[in-house]
Amino acid sequence: MGIIRELPEQLANRIAAGEVVERPASVVKELVENAIDAGATKVDVDLQEAGIHLIKVRDNGHGFHEEDAARAFLRHATSKIRDEHDLFRIRTLGFRGEALASIASVSHVSLKSKRADEDGFEMKLEGGVVKATNPTATNVGTEIAVSQLFFNTPARLKYLKTSATELASITDTLNRLALSHPEIRFTVFHEEKELLRTNGNGDLKQVMLAIYGRQVAAQIVTASSKTNDYTLSAHLVRPEVTRSNKQYVTLILNGRSIKNFALTQSVLEGYHTLLPIGRYPIAVLEVKMDPMLIDVNVHPTKREVRLSKEKELCQLIRETVQLTLREQRLIPSVKQEP
Ligand code: ADP
Ligand code: MG
Fold first, then answer.
1. What is the CATH number of domain 205-327?
2. How far does residue 193's CA lie from ligand 1's centre (Å)?
């Protein structure tokens, strides 16, 4: 008799969760991206114990149909793509249909949702298993509360860093999401302390002000440029203000904050001698392009992407940064901040 079996769905989900849900910040990222994909103009995040105890994300997006709710927690279940052609023109942040299944498999989840033309409902899950669904009065939109994260994966729970480190990672994640979507009003609270508030008026500079403060915001210069394939909008902080690592160079491709060594390097080359050795700039670069040119299906978290014309974009970035800063006739000063 053969010895190979298909794993039960819950177990398969829990294994897959290892890739998508590494830490509390991953949950925050997935929930907020879903809110953005649902067309939200307002997203509120509440955290307790650096997200380990509670992560609650509330949006005013289109909400769930009650009949879809249980299906949304199945693996590879999504409303965002239908067939293989869609894979080449992804306009949403999600499309893999993995996040809710993965998150739910390693936590307790409460989902409250309401569509404009339907009644509200609440669904509770534990370890991915639906425990109850009830009608409830709620506003149009969705609220997902994730508690007891990693309750059934003790190794993962143990591997988490200190609360301060996890919270820093969540903050970084939310800052990137807010920078990618200045048109969305974000509020973020950690145990009653406000971590972030943006006004959602679409002005990226004001998001930078909310995140980096007045001193930095006063030093922003903005430039735009384009090629046949790419439209770039660069918000560069003058090199009077620098940081000790590259984390403050934010790259946003079609509304998604990504990590890309070559593009970051191009920003640094653009600043070049204006930066003191070992210091890095604060900058946000927004790039718009045909989704055909970008492959986001490289890694489950979609932070890394492949570009078909990366060199062209690198050159555009390098030249735009260089030219803009040169036009400003900048004289680097030695004033440095942490
Ligand atoms: P994906 O985002 O890749 O489609 P998810 O597991 O994150 O997969 O979500 C599954 C589905 O649940 C989504 O395709 C969407 O239809 C629905 N969904 C998730 N979050 C929300 C939300 N905040 N508002 C409305 N629908 C949502
Ligand atoms: Mg998603």
1. 3.30.230.10
2. 28
Residue 35 in contact with ligand 1 by CB distance below 6 A: yes
The Cβ of residue 335 has, within 10 Å, a number of other Cβ atoms equal to 9
pLDDT at residue 329, as a whole number: 64
CATH pick for 9-197 out of 3.40.50.150, 3.40.50.1970, 2.10.109.10, 3.30.565.10: 3.30.565.10
C-alpha span between 44 and 113 (Å, rounded): 14
Q: How many CB atoms are closer than 10 A to CB 268?
A: 16
ipTM for the predicted complex: 0.99
The whole-number pLDDT of residue 103 equals: 96
Kindly state the tokens that stand for 140. Answer: 């149009």
In total, the chain counts a number of residues equal to 338
Question: Quick check: CB of 61 below 6 Å from ligand 1?
Answer: yes
Domain boundaries, the chain: 9-197, 205-327
Q: How far is the CA of 304 from the centre of ligand 2 (A)?
A: 16
pLDDT of residue 338: 54
The stretches in the chain having pLDDT less than 50 are 333-334
Single-letter code of the amino acid located at 227 = T
Give the pLDDT of residue 223.
95
